[in-house]
DNA sequence: AGCACGATTAACT
DNA sequence: GTTAATCGTGCTC
């Protein structure tokens, strides 16, 4: 069964709301008819040029161009000379903001994912932003693709309704050199462990 | 042109 | 707990 992807209106809101509401939705990678998918279990919000953890702190550049564009696009970047990261562009066109997808729970194409993550235990397949991209064949070729298009190589479908009580909030990971208040601002969202039984959870 | 560093991961000790 | 991997990006000279 295939549902329609989340529409532009879903993404055209403040990035913190989008990050929270992406929990429980289904991230789908469409590769020549093969579907690989998982439920999103952890996200982070990056919000505008004033957010010194956000890449847009450097302003509008070749790299950040997609973040300034239409909501509902994928912002995919390369880091540490090794890893790719997947983000969803949010907010009105012209306002640079995006949600980093930090973890998913695989639900489709698990045999293929297992092949790509050979020798790694299931709980470690996609419990990190770069692990998601490795597992779902996501790289810079897909930067800027339309997440709201049913035929897009990457899209996001509605999933589980997550009760407020199942959502944990904390500061963002991996920005130790970012000055306060941005280093500690609570813009990380994750499913609590007590929600395991419903869709699973692989957060720390 | 050169440099420091990064929204991380896996493989070490 | 520590660190190599490995290169694009943005900043300084």
The overall average pLDDT, rounded, is 95
The beta-strand count equals: 8
Residues in β-strands, percent: 25-35%
Q: What is the oligomeric state here?
A: single chain
The stretches of 5 or more residues where confidence is low (pLDDT under 50) are none
Number of H/I helices: 5
Share of helical residues: 10-25%
Structural class of the helix and strand makeup? Answer: alpha+beta
Task: State the end-to-end distance.
Answer: 31 Å
Main beta-sheet annotation: 8 strands, antiparallel
Succession of helices and strands: HHEEEEEHHEEEH
Rg calculated over all Cα atoms: 16 Å
Shape: globular
Give structural attributes.
204 residues; alpha+beta; eight-stranded antiparallel sheet; 5 helices; 8 strands; 28% strand; globular; DNA-binding
């Amino acid at each position: 069964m295939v549902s329609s992807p989340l529409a532009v209106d879903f993404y055209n809101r403040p990035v913190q709301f989008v990050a929270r509401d992406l929990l429980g939705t289904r991230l789908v990678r469409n590769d020549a008819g093969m579907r690989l998918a998982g439920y999103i279990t952890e996200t982070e919000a990056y919000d505008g040029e004033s957010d010194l953890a956000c890449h847009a702190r450097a302003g509008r550049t070749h790299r950040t161009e997609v973040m300034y564009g239409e909501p509902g696009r994928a912002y995919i970047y390369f880091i540490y000379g090794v890893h790719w990261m997947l983000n969803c562009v949010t907010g009105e066109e012209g306002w640079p903001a995006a949600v980093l997808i930090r973890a998913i729970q695989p639900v489709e194409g698990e045999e293929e994912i297992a092949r790509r993550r050979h020798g790694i235990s299931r709980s470690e397949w996609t419990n990190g932003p770069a692990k998601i991209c490795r597992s779902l064949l996501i790289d810079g070729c897909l930067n800027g693709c339309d997440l709201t298009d049913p035929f897009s190589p990457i899209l996001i479908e509605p999933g589980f309704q997550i009760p407020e009580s199942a959502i944990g909030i904390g500061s963002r990971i991996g920005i130790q050199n970012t000055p306060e208040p941005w280093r500690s601002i609570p813009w990380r969202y994750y499913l609590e462990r007590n929600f395991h039984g419903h869709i699973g959870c692989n957060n720390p």
